[in-house]
Predict the 3D structure of the following.
Amino acid sequence: MDDRLLPGFPGAGGDIKEDVLYAQFGSKTHQGTFFGEINGQTTERVKELAKIFETADLHYEIQKDIQAFHVSHAALAAVNKHFYTMAQLT
């Protein structure tokens, strides 16, 4: 396993138009940035990353089982995509 890998999921997105970044952040109650060590431990680097998010006043959540988070997110995203496509919302 690569010790440098810290899995996560961003709570922000956006578009680049004409070389300008238009960032979009979800609300604290609806979306934050999720991250965590693969082994579930809260290591020093997880704590340091959390401090950075706190300093920037960005919502985050440390996941104890980041793999399960990603698997469940992928399953939900696939179902949502199906229903959005069926309803022609995409």
Observations:
- The beta strands are 8-9, 12-17, 20-25, 33-35, 60-62.
- Residues 66-86 form the longest helix (21 residues).
- The two ends are 38 Å apart (CA to CA).
